[in-house]
Design a protein that fits this description.
The structure is a single chain. The chain is α+β, with helices and mostly antiparallel strands and about 575 residues long. α4 packs across α10 and α8 packs across α14. It is globular, with a radius of gyration of 29 Å.
Length: about 575
């Protein structure tokens, strides 16, 4: 019997040995295929290992310590001068908050655009307005029960427009912090003009957005894939990861000190990271009562109605005009300085630059001839690259085998010696997948440019910073500004143009992550930090407010065309006609 058992064991051992050898031969013959699996594929071995260790490893999103002082102070310590500037910038964007309550405020006590009203105020000369005058509108906010509000902080937009003339201009909104607001408009065209006041968010909603920005910078999370051979692992990454929960991989940029971290893989090295990607958006980050503050068609981007007429007729300018400005609340006249306005659907800048129309591809080619154009930033500047390549047939896109909508991209017109390049900015960036080797910080890229009179640098960086404390954005712009100053010092002829933020369509989810209120705050910081430098700006913010088309993260072609015309007018300004003697 023992002999029979030994024979059976020997037979089974031979079978197991044969299966093992067959598996090894199959693996060796297909190792190349295994190693080239898509970077998003997690190996079966790691899936098993993850299940075993799931009780020790956060599978999805890490818990975040809600400390609003934690995130902004990562990275290099700012100098005393930088700290002073940061304090000034934060004070300049301080927003009025509603009174504190011991319990959450009920919806019926919050601002309701339907019950709120605005009225056009008469001038000292009556109800007669001329081009060059200033129009003032008074807005009074009410709650859902019709009671007047007695504090400010609502986020309002103001626009004066004329469908007849396809004209529009953004207004300035002044918060009197007592439930009343003034909207001021310059009168820039003859004919009809209609006032439009929109409540983007109530003051109570803005308070929620501010709390999320300070306490939940993790509400958009990121991930990276680590891979070695057929073994792969994905971990959560972010600029602000608590160091006391798991071991971290530190990817802080050595030159700028910009922080970035990933949770360290359990089986692989930090050196095995191969890409960066958006992980997703956290859910359930506000209470049910707070969610009522973000209802499409109720209290997100809803128009406020006029108590009387919402239109005026503007007469031609008077040569001997008297002061016809008036204000019932703020008697001192306010000098309005919009960056421009639309007339006949064409943007007309007011900053001294003459807007040229580039309606033919040949005109764009002539303007960009012998130029190298570098575009750095988010998808809103990539939209400019895509517009130029689509509009100018001579610009041939060079296939760099880059992921769609990610880049880097390059287009060339060898006949006219034009080179157009786009590269996304460094993290945080919510693109699908970016290879780690392609993650570059704008300031480092600028430091590598030679510059010169045939070099154009275009920047747009705002949309991916809305979920972080403003200090994070200030630090990033400070590094970019320093590199720009150095670039223009060594190559004074370099042209630098910055594209500002723009408005976008909002619903509840978008509001919590990318609200126009976040963009407005970043936009104000951007303008202040580059003020006084030899840097030009395309005011996408006012261009999107003033236009009649709906707001969109990536503005429609009509607005983009005006942006490109503004850009090209900077690159190729209209030549002044010499006087004939």
């Amino acid at each position: 019997m023992e002999v029979t058992m030994c024979r059976n064991l020997s037979k089974y051992a031979l079978i197991f040995l044969f299966l093992a050898l067959s598996g090894l031969i199959f693996l060796l013959r297909n190792i190349h295929t295994v190693e080239n699996w898509n970077c998003h594929t997690i190996s079966a071995l790691y899936q098993l290992q993850s299940r075993i260790q799931s009780r020790f490893i956060p599978v999805g999103v890490p818990t975040f310590s809600h400390n609003h002082t934690f995130c902004p102070h990562l990275g290099q310590r700012p100098s005393p001068e930088d700290e002073l500037e940061e304090r000034y910038l934060l004070d300049s964007i301080a927003w009025p908050m509603p009174p504190s309550h011991s319990s959450p405020i009920a919806l019926h006590q919050t601002s309701d655009p339907v019950h709120s009203l605005f009225a056009i105020l008469p001038t000292k000369a009556g109800r007669e307005w001329h081009v060059g005058d200033q129009l003032e509108v008074l807005v009074q906010m009410h709650d859902f029960q019709g009671h007047p509000k007695h504090y400010g902080g609502d986020f309002l937009l103001a626009r004066l427009h004329s469908p007849e003339h396809k004209a529009g201009v953004a207004g300035m909104v002044l918060d009197h912090k007592n439930g009343f607001y003034s909207a001021l408009f310059p009168l820039l065209w003859v004919g009809s003009a209609q006032v439009e006041i929109t409540m983007v968010h109530s003051s109570e909603a803005v308070a929620v957005l501010r709390r999320l920005r300070e306490e939940r910078p993790d509400r958009v999370f990121f991930k990276s894939l680590f891979r070695l051979g057929f073994l792969s692992e994905t971990t959560v990454c972010n600029m602000c990861l608590p160091p006391n929960q798991q071991p971290l991989c530190n990817y802080t940029d050595l030159h700028t000190g910009e922080p970035w971290y990933c949770y360290k893989p359990k089986m692989l090295s930090c050196d095995n990271r191969i890409n960066h990607a958006k992980g997703g958006y956290l859910k359930h980050i506000i209470t049910n009562k707070e969610a009522l503050l973000f209802q499409s068609g109720v209290n997100i981007k809803v128009h406020i109605h006029a108590s009387g007429t919402d239109r005026i007729d503007v007469l031609p300018s008077k040569t001997d005009k008297i002061d016809v400005e008036s204000s019932s609340i703020k008697p001192e006249p306010i000098k309005l300085a919009p960056s421009g306005y639309y007339y006949k659907d064409s943007w007309r800048p007011l900053g001294g630059v003459t807007m040229r129309q580039f309606n033919e591809s040949s005109a764009i080619i002539q303007c960009l001839k012998n130029k190298v154009i570098y575009m750095y930033g988010d998808s809103t500047i990539r939209q400019w690259f895509e517009y130029l390549v689509a509009f100018v047939p001579e610009l041939k896109e060079f296939n760099l085998h880059s992921p769609k909508n990610v880049g880097p991209y390059m287009a060339v017109d060898s006949t006219h010696n034009i080179l157009l390049k786009y590269r996304c900015h460094g993290p945080p960036i919510r693109f699908s997948t970016v290879m780690s080797s392609e993650m570059r910080y704008i300031s480092n890229e600028l430091d590598g440019l030679s510059g010169g009179p045939n070099t154009v640098v275009l920047l747009s960086i705002w949309a991916h910073f809305s979920t972080f404390p403003v200090e994070v954005y200030i630090r990033r712009l400070r590094h970019i500004r320093r590199s720009l100053v150095q670039l223009m010092d060594r190559a004074p002829g370099t042209l630098v143009v910055i594209r500002s933020a723009n408005l976008q369509a909002l619903d509840q989810e978008v509001s919590l992550f990318n609200s126009d209120w976040y963009s407005l705050q970043l936009n104000r910081v951007l303008r202040a930090m580059f003020k006084g430098l030899n840097v030009l700006q395309v005011d996408a913010w006012q261009m999107s407010i003033a236009h009649h088309l709906p707001h969109a993260l990536h503005p429609p072609p009509a607005i983009v065309k005006n942006m490109i015309d503004m850009l090209l007018s900077y690159i190729c300004p209209e030549k002044k006609k010499s006087r004939q003697k």
